[in-house]
Amino acid sequence: MKFSIGAAAFCAIICLSAPSSAANLVEIVLTDRLDEPRGYCLDIVGNKESATPGRGLQAHSCYSYQGQLGVDQAFDAERLKAGEFYLPRFKVCLSSGSRQEGAPLNLSACDGQPAQRFDLTAAGQIVPRSAPGLCVTVADGRGAPGGGGRPVHLLRRLTLEPCSETHAAR
User: Fold this and answer.
1) Which end of the chain is more exposed for a tag (fewer CB within 10 A), N or C?
2) Closest Cα to residue 115, out of 123, 124, 106, 125?
3) In a domain, 2, yes or no
4) Separation of alpha carbons 83 and 65, rounded Å
5) 9 belongs to a structural domain
6) Are 72 and 46 in contact (CB under 8 A)?
7) Does residue 91 lie in a domain region?
8) What average pLDDT is seen over the chain?
């Protein structure tokens, strides 16, 4: 549950990769690669340009191994600094729809509401301001096969779980 910004930076849980050249975009990568050597990135459910923000956010094989960021994994680095996880191609923000353990992460039009504000802590965790004891966490177990890629891309659910060492690798 640790995040940082930097070129090829890897930390205990999730990191931000270096910005892409055209815009100040970053991907958010799970530091522990678990069962996915390409890494898991925060990703809109669906396929790149045709992803469906209304279906929420998941952890999915990172696309950067293909030489560029996928539009459904590209977050605005400047808005991240302000606590807003904004995906510019889709004009949506990460939202914690619930303050409950196990709650999924949603995407909705950015409106500045407290549910859309997240802190990147000194320990590197992404924590919703509306639920400070919970952290963005990748599901336990093995990744499920997704569409495309060689080897096939993997995906996992994302939920809010208690910030603890128990979930540190995810």
Assistant:
1) C
2) 106
3) no
4) 27
5) no
6) yes
7) yes
8) 83
pLDDT tens digits, one per residue of 36-71: 999 999 999 998 888 899 999 999 999 888 888 899
Three-state SS at 55: helix
Domain containing residue 18: CATH number: 2.80.10.50
Residue 158, domain extent? 14-167
CA gap 6, 168 in Å, rounded: 20
Least confident of 15-24, 76-85, 96-105: 15-24
For the record, the structure tokens of 96 come out as 């914690």
What would the DSSP string read from start to end of 102-160? Answer: TPBEEEEE----GGG-EEE-TT--EEETT-TTEEEEEPSSPPEE-SSTTTTPEEEEEEE
Task: Please give the share of the chain, as a percent, with pLDDT higher than 70.
Answer: 83
- Burial readout 77-106 (b: 16 or more C-beta within 10 A, e: otherwise): bebbeeebbbbebbebbbbbebeeeebebb
Residue 7 within a domain: no
Spatial distance between the Cα atoms of 139 and 148, rounded to a whole number of angstroms: 21
